[in-house]
Model the fold of this input.
Amino acid sequence: SDTRGSVRIPAALCGVTGFKPTQSRVPREGAFPLSYTLDSVGPLARSVSCCAVFDAILAADGQPADARAPEPAALPSLRLLAPRCFALDDLDPPVAAAFERALAALSAAGARISTADAPCLDAAHALFAGGGFAGAEAAQIHRALLKTKRELYDPNVAKRIEAGEGFFSGADYVQLGLDRRAVIGEAAELLSQYDAVLLPTTPSVAPTIEEVSVSGDEYARWNLRMLRNPGLINMIDGCAVSLPCHSPGEEAPIGLMVAGVGGSDRRVLAVARAIEESLAARAE
Done:
């Protein structure tokens, strides 16, 4: 499941493709929850087409044997947004370079790429402060298990979950839901002008195990850094593909996130197929 990027982050860091659908698209029965509000169930695969077929089966779009990927969108007709927001701050130089190369290649292929301020995306990111929905909900979900089987948890994970106890009051939780509803509406208004939004999936390439294992605080810092960009799509109840955008021979894989508003899943997959084909042709 993808609560704040757990499909798209490994896809980006491993050089494969991942798809986070609109939450309501794929039933979550049978999937162990982390956040009732933010969890989505989606596939990791070798290509956008593979993700699209898998998604159609998961979403019960007809009979499994008839599952098909949407045809690639016509790239010259696409209106793509590279938003000015927090998600472009403090990028690793290789990530920034790969993102700019991807934008340049898509523009050269005829896509119309715009930049615009996106305060709604900054506002969506701010709703994760203090643990957000996942902090409180994960603490409730795991409360009983942590009391009886804490030794089976990774210590870093257990510490993160337990931190959700007492993050905020019931009134704060209600207010968070109201604030999210407003942000979803603002994001839908902005993104309705475009076929998709483009962002780096993660601000960094994969860290080494040694870097992450220095201390519990360093683990937490890396974790939050990787969750930063993909999580905003969960918060606005959108859908998003992460597809590889690094050049052959680069030191580590890098992901490009192609995202849209809730309910635009098949359109986003069609746009992502067109982008995938364009970037593959550039790399040849």
